[in-house]
TrEMBL record:
<protein>
    <submittedName>
        <fullName>Divergent polysaccharide deacetylase family protein</fullName>
    </submittedName>
</protein>
<feature type="compositionally biased region" description="Polar residues">
    <location>
        <begin position="261"/>
        <end position="270"/>
    </location>
</feature>
<keyword id="KW-0732">Signal</keyword>
<dbReference type="InterPro" id="IPR011330">
    <property type="entry name" value="Glyco_hydro/deAcase_b/a-brl"/>
</dbReference>
<feature type="signal peptide">
    <location>
        <begin position="1"/>
        <end position="24"/>
    </location>
</feature>
<feature type="region of interest" description="Disordered">
    <location>
        <begin position="244"/>
        <end position="280"/>
    </location>
</feature>
<dbReference type="InterPro" id="IPR006837">
    <property type="entry name" value="Divergent_DAC"/>
</dbReference>
<dbReference type="Pfam" id="PF04748">
    <property type="entry name" value="Polysacc_deac_2"/>
</dbReference>
């Protein structure tokens, strides 16, 4: 347990806190089954343009809805009918595992034509289809030609969407919460609270609902009161960058003397060249302001580089700050430099609690 922080590390920590972006949890809400209920569809379109809509390709009003949504800058998905395990009425051109790759490709191309401006696709029902690896391989083979991503509604536990998508390089997302399995305003609000809690814990969440009157009423009230630490985003905003290779987060801290030394100029570009990795959103260059120091304090020209990889839990707030501080303190490359500076002040860097 850290009991005391000396002045210099405390300044560095303060600067680090100011430089780190405070990111809100991200919540994406997708409303399925668009294209049949004109009144409810229009009520959803009156909500924030961050709400994503998924249009059934064979619906009578699908193209009209797509035109309106596109004018709003709203994300549009193709709500592709897929065969379920249960016996129930099916939409026209429902994809099934028994179909050939050519037939699936024809149906998907027709759906893309019927739902203009679509950025991605998600499944309508589909427990039998999405649990079939060969069937979903045919779907992903077709999607790979159209630059569309796939949102897995996860209507069955052993979904093969992810496995098939990896084979063909199709970006994917997963549904985390259904908000209206039971059609009541109270139930939808309860499920939206669960989606917010999931987003806070994991950084983001995808919630799926339908244009039921009770869902519309719940969204009209709830979105106006969305917590300040949760950002409503279009579902495509949750897609990971295409380059999946992540470099360790690197911190390089320079003293003011290092920046002023004419023989060894330190520029932002020079720092990036030394790290030998392209700058990413995870890379932070911290350059503290000049501060008066006692003459007997030894200031190294570079405090060094502390590299660390964020844990899967993705700590936030004070937990993230403490994680960074501990990473700096435990880094073997930095320890000699930190000790050198603190010997000049004749006091330990960290005083352990007895």
């Amino acid at each position: 347990m850290l009991k005391h922080l000396p002045v210099r590390p405390l300044i560095v920590l303060s600067l680090l806190m100011m430089c780190l972006p405070v990111s809100a949890a991200k919540l994406a809400i997708v409303i399925d089954d668009f294209g049949y209920r004109v009144k409810e569809d229009n009520q959803i379109l009156a909500l924030s343009p961050a709400v994503t809509i998924a249009i059934l390709p064979s619906s009578p009003h699908g193209r009209e809805v797509a035109e309106k949504a596109n004018q709003q800058g709203r994300d549009i998905l193709i709500h592709m009918p897929m065969k379920p395990l249960s016996k129930q009425p099916l939409e026209k051109d429902t994809l099934a595992p028994s179909m050939s790759a050519e037939e699936i490709d024809r149906i998907i191309k027709n759906a893309i034509t019927r739902v203009p401006y679509a950025k991605g696709m998600n499944n309508h029902m589909g427990s039998e289809m999405t649990s079939s690896l060969p069937g979903m391989q045919n779907v992903m083979r077709s999607l790979s030609k159209s630059n569309l991503f796939f949102l897995d509604s996860v209507t069955i536990g052993n979904t093969q969407v992810g496995n098939a998508a990896k084979e063909y390089g199709v970006p994917t997302l997963r549904r985390h919460i259904f908000i209206d399995n039971h059609q009541s305003e109270e139930e939808t609000r309860t499920q939206l609270n669960k989606a917010v809690a999931y987003a806070r814990k994991h950084g983001s969440a995808v919630a799926i609902g339908h244009p039921h009157p009770s869902t519309v009423r719940a969204l009209q009230k709830y979105l106006a009161q969305l917590p300040a630490d949760v950002e409503l985003v279009a579902v495509s905003a949750l897609l990971s960058p295409q380059s999946s290779t992540k470099q360790p987060t690197s911190l390089r801290m320079l003293s003011e003397e290092a920046k002023k030394t004419p023989t060894q100029p330190q520029t932002k570009q020079a720092v990036q060249d030394e790290i030998k990795t392209p700058p990413t959103k995870d890379a932070t260059v911290v350059q503290p302001e000049a501060a008066s120091q006692p003459e007997n304090v030894i200031i190294p020209q570079e405090l060094g580089i502390c590299e660390f990889t964020l844990p899967p839990s993705k700590p936030q707030g004070i937990d993230f700050i403490m994680f960074v501080v501990e990473s700096i303190y435990n880094d073997k490359a930095l320890q000699p430099l930190l000790v050198q500076g603190d010997r000049a002040q004749k006091r330990p860097l960290f005083k352990q609690q007895q």
